[in-house]
Amino acid sequence: MMKREQIVFVGTSDLAGHFRGKSFPAADLPARLLRGVGLAPTNIFISAFGPIQVTTFGTKGEVFLVPDPSTRVFVPFEGSTAEYFFLGDIRTLEGEPWAFCPRHILRRAIERLQSETGLRMLATFEQEFIYSGVAAHPRQPYELDAYRRQGVFGETLLGAMRQVGVVPDSFLAEFGPQQFEVTCAPALGVRAADDAVITRALAQAVAFRLGHRVSFNPLPEPTGTSSGTHIHFSFLDQDEQPVLFDEQRPWQLSVLGGQFIAGIQHHLPALCAVTAPSVPSYFRLRPNRWAPVQADVGPLDRGAALRICAGVDSDPERRARQFNAEFRVADATASPYLALAVLVQAGLDGIRRQREIEIDNPRSLPKNFAAALTLLETSQSAAEWLGTDFLSAYVLFKRAEIKGLENVDEVEICRRYAEVY
Ligand code: GLU
Ligand code: MG
Fold it and tell me: Which of 124, 128, 178 should be mutated for ligand 1, with most atoms under 8 A from CB?
């Protein structure tokens, strides 16, 4: 009998937030772990919709996407192919980290935070999405019946996550019709973003095996229920002690934690262009959606851009570890690597400058993606965090996406994004 040969994929979450890469015979893995797979630098600019709309590299050059062995994902689905992939780093011909590698941009931010402050970041991405396997039905927010009607999707997804070392934290029926949410346990540094990419890919993988589809698109239609990707974070110091919590202070927020959050708040209007990086992202950031509209910080406020989330345990030690902050101005059109990178850099800037949270008169968030991009483009801080070459290429890339949607109405824009996210 003919024997099938196993194939493995290596990819990264790129500027469009899509998980792209290349696959090769699994038998070659030992060699590929060393040299990776060759990519055209332009691949990083493949648009959200597929065609290359703009590139700073043209057809020239060569970079290498190298699998990181610690990110191995292998899930054997019964009666189907296995889901087998790695996340990778993009290196230059000389073997150096490539300035356009999203994972490298995050690693640089995390290392900088650690070297300047000694802090290690714990983070997790709470991801909302639409699952097509649930029959159309009037909304049943958080109802057991809504959960039940998704059948084996949730259990299969959580099983797959657990099997590959992404610890499930929650899976639930959300507010909108066919809307669900999945969250994994917090992880340290780059691994937090890796887990978000893996979780998203596994949700797609499970839906596909069941003959369905998931969509992480920010909005199914302009008047619909939005799907956000909320980023929760806290910190550990060198002795593994939590540092965000201070029972004595307002909102129980430590001085350092307050400065970090204030840094994000300060840079927020500009960094929206990285965390909410598509045209429909800004249809989500409108009033009455439980999505933010201002650069505000609020304890226990699900309408705020940054929410302070209390711990609930009666044990103070455990309560301090549960205490975290949530960044709500993100969605799944963002690469988790780039989104987390700008949060870390902005927060670190807040610590460096000892910024304080502004409570009165918070600024509005940009009204559309073009406005956010202009703020990002003119931010000297962003140029330093991302590198000037990356930043100018990023702005060019996203402007081409906006231009491609000129004169397209909001309903059609949502439909197009729902097809590809
Ligand atoms: N779906 C809302 C959003 O777009 C969030 C709802 C919630 O608080 O979980 O961010
Ligand atoms: Mg939610």
Answer: 128
Indicate whether 174 and 67 sit together in one domain: no
Run of H or E including 18: none
* Phi, psi of 130, rounded to the nearest 5 degrees: -105, 135
Mutational pocket test of ligand 1: of 174, 215, 278, 307, the residue with most ligand atoms within 8 Å of the beta carbon:
174
Beta bridge partners of 12: 20
Q: Are 195 and 125 in contact (CB under 8 A)?
A: yes
CATH of the domain at 19: 3.10.20.70
Q: How far apart are CA 122 and CA 260, in angstroms?
A: 14
pLDDT at 311: 77
Scanning 118-148, the segments in alpha helix (DSSP H) are 144-148
Q: Which residues line ligand 1 (CB under 6 A)?
A: 128, 226-228, 284, 289-291, 302, 328
Residue to probe by mutation, ligand 1, list 183, 328, 365, 421, most atoms within 8 Å of CB:
328
Q: Do 17 and 148 fall into the same domain?
A: no
Question: The domain that contains 129 carries what CATH number?
Answer: 3.30.590.10
In angstroms, what is the span from residue 329 Cα to ligand 2's centroid? Answer: 13
Q: Tell me if 61 is assigned to some domain.
A: yes
Burial class (CB in 10 A: 0-12, 13-18, 19+), 290: exposed
Same domain flag for 281 and 399: yes
Kindly state whether residues 154 and 86 are assigned to the same domain. Answer: no
pLDDT for residue 312: 81
CA of 182 to the centre of ligand 2 (A): 9
Whether 2 maps to a domain, the answer reads no
Q: How many CB atoms lie within 10 A of CB 247?
A: 10
Name residues of the chain where pLDDT drops below 50. none
228 C-alpha to center of ligand 2: Å?
7
Q: Which one, of 65, 42, 28, 75, lies nearest residue 201 by Cα?
A: 75
Ligand number with the minimum distance to the CA of 230: 1
For 228, 236, 391, the CA distances from 124, given in Å and listed in that order, are: 13, 14, 25
Name the DSSP letter for residue 3.
P
| DSSP notation for 312-378 | --SSHHHHHHH-EEEE-S--TTS-HHHHHHHHHHHHHHHHHTT-----SSPPBPPSSHHHHHHHHHT
Specify the ligand 1 atom closest to the Cα of 292.
Answer: 10
